[in-house]
Amino acid sequence: MKQIVLITDGCSNEGISPVVAAAHAVRQGIVVNVIGIVDDGTDMGERGASEIAEIAKAGGGMSRIVSSRALAETVQMMTRKTVVETIRQTVQQELRQLMGPTAALESLSPERRGPVVRMIDELSETGSLRVALLIDTSASMRPKLRAVEEACRDLLASLRARKGTSEMSVLHFPGNTEADLLADWTSDLAKKDELFYKLNMKGTTPTGPALMKALRYVAEAGSSRHAGIRDDEWEGGPPFRASSGDGILSDYIV
């Protein structure tokens, strides 16, 4: 399972539409969640809030607008919910293949539904997961970066508590390219004392180009082979993917 979590405090103002970029991501099986971060007692404005919601909708994810204090909790919540929803969607798809186009998990008898729900819960904990955090580091984000760094470290601690293999990476924009890599796929940020130390923070917010760069990174550079990890070396098996053949429900629906 692969996710991009975009954290920003404003509207994009340069390059391709981030809504278009998010749609590209979801077509490659990468979910895009978006968090708008604001100062206490302020709001993002109608345009910013609308853009955040539209990016998440196009990327198959969810959106929230929160204060710096609620950021860490929100990132973890989004990540967990997206994992569960990804698995539920795959289960739903297989139910329709097995039982017809109107089949739904909720329509199963209790005897059948119970084991499937337990399977979803188990896969949520054991399926391999990669999360790329894409951080807006435009000039207006400077006072919020400490909260963002704490959220990065808290998320990684949460991921490490899962049974399945979990890795996280951190990219930021604007930078020398559309999005610059701060931390490659890792399960340990201990060696990164200050992720955002001495960044050259700029005024523009090229969210769309940054999302395109992030999705290429997740889809290509984020593959297990690129990271030096074979699929069969992942704890809990290879990264979760939609199944073929008998499907993941073959033991539950007969």
Question: What descriptive keywords fit this protein?
Answer:
single chain, about 250 residues, alpha/beta, Rossmann fold, six-stranded mixed sheet, 6 helices, about 40% helix, about 20% strand
Secondary structure layout:
Layout: E1 2-8, H1 18-27, E2 30-38, H2 46-58, E3 60-67, H3 71-99, H4 110-126, E4 129-136, H5 145-160, E5 166-173, E6 180-186, H6 207-221
Parallel strand pairs: 1-2, 1-4, 2-3, 4-5
Antiparallel strand pairs: 5-6
Helix pairs in contact: 1-2, 1-6, 3-4, 3-5
Would you write up a description of this structure?
The protein is α/β, with parallel strands linked by helices. It has a single domain (2-233), classed as 3-Layer(aba) Sandwich (Rossmann fold), CATH 3.40.50. The protein is 39% helix and 19% strand. The protein contains six helices and six strands. The longest helix has 29 residues, at 71-99.
Compact description:
The chain is α/β, with parallel strands linked by helices and 254 residues long. It has a single domain (2-233), classed as Rossmann fold. 39% of the residues lie in helices and 19% in strands.
* Mean pLDDT metric: 81
SSE pattern, N- to C-terminal: EHEHEHHEHEEH
Please give the number of β-strands: 6
Q: Ranges with pLDDT <50 over ≥5 residues? A: 224-245
Q: Give the full name of the CATH homologous superfamily.
A: von Willebrand factor, type A domain
Portion of residues within helices? 25-40%
Instruction: Record the strand order, biggest sheet.
Output: 3-2-1-4-5-6
Beta-strand residue fraction? 15-25%
Q: Mind describing the biggest β-sheet?
A: 6 strands, mixed
What is the subunit organization of this protein?
Answer: single chain
Q: Quick one: overall form?
A: globular
Distance between the termini: 27 Å
What is the third-level CATH name, the topology? Rossmann fold
Q: What is the gyration radius calculated from CA atoms?
A: 19 Å
InterPro entries: VWF_A (IPR002035), vWFA_dom_sf (IPR036465)
Domain VWFA: 1-87
Protein name: VWA domain-containing protein
